Recover the amino acids of this structure.
């Protein structure tokens, strides 16, 4: 059974949908954040919206409009990049969930396509469970589709505007990719969220994007076929979780 888009419903249809679909999904992705000289500022939002589309086509959920602003401190020095301070970001997401909970929704999934947004959203999950008794699940963008990512990636390190992210946009909006400007540039040290023997999956460290291009990885290796495979795997991970989540008390 397919899901429904909340923004497409009337308030009466929304009331019926909340009774019929137990899970509400909120996509979160930066609508304006640096992604190198070759990718649009809205890369994260485009990816999370594509994941939302695939999920809504396959799972019985209420899909909320995507939140295009969040906590992205590593990119605030780059023109066009916007970051919302943690209390304001968390407060906004909490209010969205509280609004839906007020009308009866008890289970939520946040499709978080960010790295710095993940810790505050994890905290929010516990906070709202204690406050309202609702369940709030949050995706880990670095883990979604990780098995396929490991198969298709040829770059030795990466994590931002790299081979994988560029491939995703080539699959979604090839007209917005300037491959002639794609370069290989890697942050020094253990910096890369899909990088070096998975160390950053075990140890977290804050920082800024300091490469000249704003790329961390090898964007020149990107191909649309890689992006389609990764997007499909990421969406399937979410769909598989939702199946189990729906059965959870």
């Amino acid at each position: 059974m397919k899901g429904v888009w909340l923004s497409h419903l009337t308030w009466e249809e929304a009331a019926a949908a909340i009774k019929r679909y137990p899970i509400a999904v909120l996509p979160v992705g930066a609508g304006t954040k640096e992604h190198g000289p070759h990718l649009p500022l809205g890369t994260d939002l485009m990816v999370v919206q594509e994941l939302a589309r695939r999920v809504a086509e396959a799972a019985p959920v209420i899909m909320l409009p995507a939140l295009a602003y969040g906590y992205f401190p590593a990119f605030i020095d780059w023109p066009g990049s916007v970051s919302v301070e943690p209390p304001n970001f968390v407060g906004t997401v909490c209010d969205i969930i509280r609004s839906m909970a007020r009308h009866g929704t008890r289970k939520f999934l946040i499709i978080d396509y960010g790295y710095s947004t993940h810790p505050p959203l994890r905290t929010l999950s516990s906070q709202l469970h204690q406050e309202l008794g609702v369940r709030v699940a949050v995706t880990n963008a670095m883990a979604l589709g990780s098995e396929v990512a490991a198969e298709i990636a040829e770059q030795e390190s990466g994590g931002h505007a790299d081979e994988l992210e560029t491939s995703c946009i080539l699959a979604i909006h090839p007209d917005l990719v300037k491959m002639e400007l794609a370069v290989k540039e890697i942050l020094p040290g253990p910096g890369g969220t899909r990088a070096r023997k998975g160390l950053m999956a075990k140890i977290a460290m804050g920082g800024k994007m300091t490469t000249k291009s704003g790329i961390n990885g090898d964007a020149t290796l990107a191909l649309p076929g890689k992006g389609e495979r990764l997007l499909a795997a990421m969406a399937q991970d979410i769909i598989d979780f939702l199946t189990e989540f729906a059965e959870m008390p």
